[in-house]
Amino acid sequence: MRYIEPTRVKVLMMMFFATGVMGLVIGLAIAPPSMTMMITFMGVINIGLGAFFTFIFLTQIQKEPDKRKKKKKRD
């Protein structure tokens, strides 16, 4: 898998976890009975995506700089 910057992964994690929790709360407490299951299910999917990005954040390897592009110092 391609390397993703840690700040970008953190933003995605927070976004999915926040919308997942909000979806669960709205689905279980506020939504009309006809939409309760659908909104709750979408909240669970968002929490799953947040967990996936957390896994990516914790397991990805630091990107190494390309040594071919680095300028060498002349003495």
Uncertain residue segments: none
Main beta-sheet annotation: none
Shape: rod-shaped
Q: If helices are DSSP runs of H or I spanning 4 or more residues, what is the number of helices?
A: 2
Average pLDDT score: 91
Alpha-carbon distance between the termini? 40 Å
Strand fraction: under 5%
C-alpha-based Rg, rounded = 20 Å
Q: In which range does the helix fraction lie?
A: 55-70%
Total beta-strand segments:
0
SSE string, helices as H and strands as E: HH
How would you sum up this structure in a few lines?
The protein is 65% helix and 0% strand. The chain contains two helices and no strands. The longest helix has 25 residues, at 6-30.
Descriptive report:
- The chain is mainly α and 75 residues long.
- Helix content is 65%, strand content 0%.
- It has helices at 6-30, 36-59.
- The longest helix has 25 residues, at 6-30.
- The chain starts with 5 loop residues before the first helix and ends in a 16-residue tail after the last helix.
